[in-house]
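ok new one. same drill as before - structure tokens go in, u give me an amino acid for every spot. 471 of them this time. try not to just spam alanines like last time pls lmao
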């Protein structure tokens, strides 16, 4: 028996490859499925099942393409209703895989079809739990993502409480928990950076598994502090539930090289969004006017989903030559399939053609401090509320990048805006969006809040400090 976790950092997502006696099950596959097919071929094995823990919201699963290419059934747990052929397993049903067994555990709460898969080894010993978004390391799945349900968030949290107490916590402490996500995913709020753990450790350290916890306490703690989910989540749920185009079709459509004239014409004629995926540093030195920058070097796909509201948006790409396929694949992972092509030769070709360019001023943290010493500045911090609460520049305004489209009116017009995040990635994304919306006088702080703190020349405070002083 072999268990392999295939972890994708950009999405903080874990897919699983289980092999026994020449038969394979793949759990929660990513959209690009060739690696699973290649792995099975290398093992001289056959993919027998494509198992889905639930209808994912944060990425488009590869279940349809993998099932078609491997001629294997797609398996969901109870309550799943799909727009394609799938096997809906019963709670407690056992699926044979070579010499091992996979037991279906229906665990509603994150969503009503949420299901965990319990692996029993050759001797029938309970060895591993593939827990989907029901149980994470350090957290549990958020109960506010179910689509088109009459159930409230508190109702779902109650179901989750029951699922954890009745289906998961009675399992042996030695069972290894393999969740669908780790730290950085928006599917939970307190996930660990660790991507596996024993169930016994989780019973000790996961706040949601406290033995003494009442149902009311659980509902209150699990639902407290949840930020609004990204706009693309409901759209990804529908793609996973109803179906989507083959990734081969999507990648072939987007892999169209366009010379600068053709690229410009396509942008003008279609109204496509021009997305520049180069690094923040490269982008600041020069870019096509009205371009949005979301760099491949960061959590690219989730930020695309958070900031481009409609997955059907037509897109034209500006890439560092050689990264076009990576950009297309990572866009497809979150359902952004309507890429019309990319700028052939990259931004250098645009410059060589003599077309108009724009820049964003970027200054060092020391230069920012020098300017602060001569007068009051408008400083906008685009980090998350929790980061800002921990420590921030005195007098800074917090407008998180996640909600920049909804809070555009809060950015002051007619004055210079000095913008920063933690390290420089998010602030350049924000600066590019502001530029595209008509804000001209934008200054990015290179290195972000980390660089500001390192100067040792500036006063920072936390919201806790402020509340204690007020008291």
């Amino acid at each position: 028996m072999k268990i392999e976790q295939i972890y994708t950092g950009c999405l903080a997502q874990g897919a699983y490859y289980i092999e026994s006696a020449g038969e394979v099950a793949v759990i929660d596959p990513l959209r690009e499925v060739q690696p699973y097919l290649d792995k099975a071929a290398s093992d001289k094995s056959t993919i027998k099942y494509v198992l889905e823990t639930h209808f994912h919201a944060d990425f488009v699963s590869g279940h349809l393409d993998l099932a078609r290419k491997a001629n294997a059934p797609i398996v969901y747990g109870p309550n799943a209703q799909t727009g394609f052929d799938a096997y809906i397993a019963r709670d407690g049903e056992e699926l044979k895989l070579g010499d091992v067994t996979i037991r279906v555990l229906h665990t509603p709460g994150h969503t009503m079809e949420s299901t965990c898969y319990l692996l029993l080894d050759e001797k029938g010993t309970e060895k591993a739990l593939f827990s989907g978004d029901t149980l994470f390391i350090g957290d549990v799945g958020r109960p506010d993502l179910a689509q088109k349900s009459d159930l409230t968030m508190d109702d779902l949290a109650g179901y989750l409480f029951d699922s954890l107490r009745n289906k998961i916590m009675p399992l042996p402490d030695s069972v290894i928990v393999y969740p669908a996500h780790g730290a950085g995913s928006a599917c939970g709020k307190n996930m660990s950076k660790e991507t596996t753990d024993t169930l016994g450790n989780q019973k000790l350290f996961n706040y949601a598994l406290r033995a003494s916890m009442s149902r009311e306490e659980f509902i209150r703690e699990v639902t407290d502090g949840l930020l609004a989910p990204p706009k693309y989540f409901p759209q990804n749920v529908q793609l996973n539930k109803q179906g989507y185009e083959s990734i081969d079709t999507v990648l072939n459509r987007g892999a169209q090289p366009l010379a600068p004239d053709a690229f410009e014409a396509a942008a003008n004629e279609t109204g496509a969004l021009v997305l520049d995926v180069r690094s923040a540093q490269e982008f600041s030195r020069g870019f096509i006017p009205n371009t949005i920058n979301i760099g491949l070097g960061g959590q690219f796909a989730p930020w695309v989903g958070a900031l481009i509201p409609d997955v059907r948006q037509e897109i034209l790409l500006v890439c560092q030559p050689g990264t076009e396929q990576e950009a297309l694949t990572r866009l497809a992972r979150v359902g952004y399939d309507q890429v019309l092509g990319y700028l052939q030769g990259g931004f250098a070709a645009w410059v060589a053609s003599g077309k108009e360019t724009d820049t964003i001023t970027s200054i060092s943290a020391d230069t920012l401090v020098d300017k602060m010493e001569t007068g009051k500045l408008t400083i906008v911090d685009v980090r998350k509320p929790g980061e800002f609460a921990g420590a921030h520049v005195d007098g800074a305004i917090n407008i998180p990048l996640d909600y920049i489209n909804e809070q555009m009116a809060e950015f002051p017009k007619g004055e210079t805006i000095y913008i920063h995040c933690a390290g420089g990635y998010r602030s350049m994304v924000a600066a590019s969006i502001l530029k595209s919306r008509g804000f001209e006088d934008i200054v990015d702080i290179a290195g972000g809040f980390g660089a500001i703190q390192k100067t040792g020349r500036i006063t920072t405070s936390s919201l806790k400090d402020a509340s204690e002083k007020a008291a």
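Residues 466-471 have pLDDT under 50 and may be disordered. and btw The chain has three domains: 2-234, 245-352, 361-470.
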